[in-house]
Structures are given as C-alpha cells and as structure tokens.
Amino acid sequence: MFIDVSNLKKSYPSGVVITEVLKGIGMKLEKREIGVILGPSGSGKSTLMNIIGGIDRCDSGRVIVDGIEVNDLNDDRLIDYRREHVGFVFQFYNLVPDLTVGENIEVVSNISKSPLNTDEVLTAVEMRDKKYRFPRELSGGEQQRVSIARAIVKNPKLLLCDEPTGALDYDTSRSILRLLQQVNQKYGTTILMITHNAAIAAMANRVFKLRSGEIVEETVNQTIVPAERIEW
Ligand code: ADP
Ligand code: MG
C-alpha cells in the first residue's frame, strides 16, 4: 500500500475549547492511483492532506507513505521527506509574482539534482512558450499549469492537490484535471486531490467522503472517466 493512514487524530485549540478536526481517519491508496477526498468546507480535508504531506503533524495515529512512517520523523527528516517525495498544488497557485515562469520552477530547492528539468516540465504542461512571462501575464489556468510544473520537477512520488480547480471555470478545470491524469500516467505519480465538487470524483480510482473529520464513505471506481468528459 502506497499511502496507509490509520486512526489519525488531530485537534486544534480554539480559545479555551479544543476542536477535534480529524477523528480517527483511516484511508489507503495504492501506488499510481488517483485518490479524491470529497467533503464540504471545514470537514478537515486540508488538515488531512497537510499531515500526509508533512506540512502539519497529527496528534496520534499512523501515516505511512511508501514505507516511510511520516508520523515518526523528526523535524529535519520531515522537511527532507516533504522536499524529496511530495509535490504540492494549491487553489491559488502560490507562484512568486516577481519571478518569471521559468524562475518560479527554478526556486525549487536542489533543482540541479532534479530528475526533470525546467524545459521538460514546461513542455509537459504545455507552457514552454511562456517561460519568460510573469504570473500576472497569465490566465488562472496557465498559472495553475506552471504550479503543476513546479510541483512535478522533482518527479515526486506523491502529488497533493488542494482544490486545484477551485478558482477556475469548468472548461479550464477539465483541462487542468486532464493534465493531472496525464502526469499520473506519464510519470506514474500517485495523486491525492481535495475537492468539494462531487463531479470530480469520476476521474479518480478511489473516493473518500469526509464529513466533520470522519470518512463516511469510500468508493472504488471500476471505470475512470477522462477528465475532459466530466459532466458538471
Ligand atoms: P477543509 O479543508 O475541509 O475546508 P480544514 O482542514 O482547512 O477543512 O479545517 C477543518 C477545521 O479545522 C476548520 O474548522 C478550521 O477552522 C480548523 N483549523 C484548520 N487549521 C487550523 C489551525 N491551524 N488552527 C486552528 N484551527 C484550524
Ligand atoms: Mg481546505
């Protein structure tokens, strides 16, 4: 099993009250699969993803990614895990405004040791001709393509996408989701994606429904819908 999460719990203090945001999550994903976490705002999706990606820590439970017991890593090793193995894509792209497209990819640490180079990933996301543009000169969909290029330049084992189409119109969303399916196929990258849009679940191998910090349903899709055919 590539991702193996069991009995994961996380609480945040809010004033004098402690809110349990994840209440004993269990989920598994095989290597090269696409998993979707589906749930309403505030259900704990980002918290779960951030713990799997080593941005945040759990209070208890286990998170194993490709044999690495993430919950056991000390702070330095957690940073190494994140840098070496995980790519992140966020809703609002998180590009550096003062850097060109190419430079945004080259800010990735240890880029010289990356298995892929800037031109390769820009070609993969069909943005090679925009290498010297600035983020403000690009549409939202194009900015998201660049952020995907940045996330995959290290050829991470795991790509975590937090509402990657949350700020995009339906047609652009389809093309970004299609790109993620292509990355999954071409590089064999395991992808875990967050969404509150149930239609997106059709393109995944496994779907985890999250409600108030609990997985209330898991679906295994027998047929995967190519993203360009998602019906909204
Ligand atoms: P989702 O991504 O599903 O919208 P989140 O995981 O972002 O949900 O948040 C789940 C709950 O945890 C929310 O009620 C949110 O306010 C709370 N929360 C998230 N991060 C923090 C934090 N760093 N400190 C305190 N509360 C937090
Ligand atoms: Mg969120």
Give short descriptive properties of this protein.
232 residues, alpha/beta, Rossmann fold, 6-stranded mixed beta sheet, 4-stranded antiparallel beta sheet, 6 helices, 27% helix, binds adenosine-5'-diphosphate, binds magnesium ion
What does this structure look like?
The protein contains 6 helices and 10 strands, in the order βββαββαβαααβαβββ. By secondary structure, it is α/β, with parallel strands linked by helices. It has a single domain (3-27, 36-198, 214-221), classed as 3-Layer(aba) Sandwich (Rossmann fold). It has a 6-stranded mixed beta sheet, with helices on both faces. A 4-stranded antiparallel beta sheet has the order 2-1-4-5, covered by helices on one side. β4 (60-65) and β5 form a beta hairpin. α4 packs across α5 and α5 (140-152) runs parallel beside α6 (170-187). The mean pLDDT is 96. The structure holds adenosine-5'-diphosphate (ADP) and magnesium ion (MG). Magnesium ion is lined by residues 45-46, 162. Residues 3-232 form the ABC transporter domain. InterPro entries: AAA+_ATPase, ABC_transporter-like_ATP-bd, ABC_transporter-like_CS, MacB-like_ATP-bd, P-loop_NTPase. Keywords: ATP-binding, Nucleotide-binding, Transport. Belongs to the ABC transporter superfamily.
